[in-house]
Structures are given as structure tokens and as C-alpha cells.
Amino acid sequence: HNTAATGTAQTGYSGTQTIQTDSYNGSYRLREATRGNGVQTYNLKKTTNYSNAVDFTDADDIWNNVNANLDQYATDAHWGAEMTYDFYKNNFNRNSIDGNGYAINSYVHYSQNYFNAFWDGTRMTYGDGNATDGNKPLTALDVCGHEITHGLTSFTANLNYSYESGALNEGISDCMGTSIEFYARPNNANWLIGSDFYTLRSMSDPKSYGQPNTYKGVNWATGGADNGGVHTNSGVLNYWYFLVSAGNSGVNDNGTSYSVSGIGIGKAAAILYRTLTLYLTPTSQYADTRTYSIKAATDLYGAGSNEVLQVTNAWTAVGLGN
Ligand code: ASN
Ligand code: ZN
Which atom of ligand 1 is found nearest the CA of 231? Predict the structure, then answer.
């Protein structure tokens, strides 16, 4: 028999946060039922065997045991999943990734020296990192939001995970992951991906991490590696999203001068969410995303609005003018 409880977590990356847990058999677990059909976070104990995963437990629901197993970072995954649920619920009234309460299960301490995190179609998995990032777990808030958003994408546009549609799939996860970071941790948010443990990408300056900021421009990946460059060519969507949110001016790789006035990350998220959930399809390309994001902005803010103008200007900036 279990009872809902409210705990306090000293997270690894996000300071002290309130989390929902439950009380069971004399201790507390990272399980809750206040959001949809539940948010659960499990311990793989450095194995890859999901059927042997166990609960993380705490004696008093004040999760402050910093230990050599790095168990404190499990609370980051749990809180990150809760904040991702809240972001979609509070902003778009969406009840989890499928709109129907889909249980969000996360698995921490996957394997050994594993420097990645992934959504496998049903759940999240996080490695503990390796020497590259100083052995820091991958449970940063923006990465939690990124991985869970892969689930949202699979239930909506279901963008094919290769070449351009795959780059859009990746970019959408970065854009929403960063939006979730700004939503849940507004005083400690940035446009980098994974900077809590090791910066993987920059949305405000994709070229500084080997990504393109212009469609088919410098750093655009053309080969089959990485499913057709999905983690590289996502830089174009990322920079578009940064521009829509925060604005910037400059000259792109085609020699086109641009100036975008940011409309804020909240409106940018609303436009991208509507584009993803209403208009994109498995085979959508960058040109389609331009068309439908302008349509989404028109739906939300009206034809001729400043929002539509800046969304359009940002596409011109990344090399997708008409
Ligand atoms: N962390 C990576 C991602 O979510 C895993 C992968 O390559 N699919 O994109
Ligand atoms: Zn991804």
C-alpha cells in the first residue's frame, strides 16, 4: 500500500526542488501519480537490464544523500520529468506526451562509462557519463526535456529520424528542452544544450559547436552518418528558434543580411508546439516547417502580426527565404 507524498530534493544540477514521491513499506520512492498516469524514476545499477531495475529510496523524503554512486542525480531526472510534464500541461493543456496521461518512466545509472541519454520509444534512459564530462550523469534539465520531447514528437508529427526530417526531430527536442529549462529554472537557463555536465550544442551560435546556422551552409552534414546528420543539421532549427525568441542581426552564409526582433521564448514555444502537433508529418522538411510555422503564428497572433513577421524574418536569416 502506497501513499502520495511531497519530498524535497537536493538535485545534482538544479539546486533544491520540491518533488512528488510516494511512501511505501517504510521509506519513500521516486514515484508519483499526481501527473497523468504517473512519473517514475528507477535505478539500473550500472547495468542495461531493465527488468532488474529497482526503486531509489529515501528514509525521510528529504533527498539529500550525496554519495559516490551519484544517486543524487536521480532526483534531477525525476524533477526534470515532472517539469516537462508541467510545461506541456500548463502551457498547452496537454496531459503528457500522448495527451492521455502517458506514464513517464526514467531509468538512471544505465551501464558504465555511458555518455548519452535516449528515448527508446517508451521510456527515458540516462548514462552516468564518462571521462569526457568528468563522470557526470546526463540527467540535466534540458536533456530531460529533450528526451521526453522525442516521445511527444513520436505521438504527433512522428518525424522520420533521418536526414532533414530527423534534423527537425532533433531540433524540436533541443528547442523544447531549452524552453523547459527557461520554464522551470528561469534564473539559471541558457541557450546551450547539456551545459550542466558538458556542452553539446549552442542554439545561439551553432557554428561554435560544428553545426550550421544556415540551411545547407557551413557545417551542413551531407553523409549518412548519425542518421544523415540529425544532430548536426538541427542547428538550423535551433538558430531559427533562438532568433524568434531572443532576436539578433547579422549576415548568413549566403551573404543575406538579417535583423530579427525577438518575441520571447514563450511565444516561440507556442508557435513550434502548434507546428509540431497540428501540421508537421513524418516526411516534413525545413521548407515545410517554414510554411507551417508561419501558418501557426498566423493562427495564434493574426495575419500581419509582428509575431508572423519575426518568424518569417528568422527563416530568412537561416537561409529559408521565399
Ligand atoms: N541523446 C541522443 C538524442 O536524444 C540519443 C540519440 O542519438 N538518439 O538525440
Ligand atoms: Zn535527441
Answer: 9
